[in-house]
Design goal:
This protein is mainly alpha-helical. It has one domain. Helices cover 76% and strands 0% of the residues. The longest helix has 29 residues. The termini are close together.
């Protein structure tokens, strides 16, 4: 049976991504002016930091609540990346001063629907061993 690896297998990658993201954000915010390229770098580092933070949580949830088919490691990474992208979109909306809780909720529902549809597609192509 195809089982997801233990969530501790994701810890080295998670720590690396979190250190890279948060360290880069600290360096970026303390040493640059808010021009175009540092702003884009900030959004990228938010994605990296958010993904690194969410990776162990997502891995644990997929380990404790397995689906059919079980989540592959690439699925766990994809779900953590969704969280990082969500945080970057929220930051981008805040920079433009158009952020609202209703919009944040609609974005969350939309990204969750995309992930559900991807998992359904994977389920339709899964063949048990």
């Amino acid at each position: 049976m195809n089982r997801m690896p233990n969530p501790t297998a994701f810890l080295p990658v998670s720590i690396f991504l979190a250190l890279l993201g948060y360290g880069g954000l600290a360096l970026l915010l303390s040493s640059t002016q808010p021009t175009l390229w540092p702003r884009w770098l900030m959004f990228f580092l938010i994605v990296v930091a958010g993904s690194g933070t969410a990776l162990p949580v997502v891995a644990f949830l997929n380990f404790r609540l397995p689906g059919r088919p079980p989540a592959a490691p690439r699925v766990v990474v994809r779900q953590a990346l969704w969280f990082g992208v969500y945080l970057a979109i929220l930051a981008w909306l805040q920079v433009g001063r158009v952020f609202s809780p209703n919009l944040a909720l609609m974005l969350l529902v939309g990204l969750a629907a995309i992930e559900v549809l991807l998992r359904l597609w994977e389920r339709s192509r899964w063949q048990p061993e």
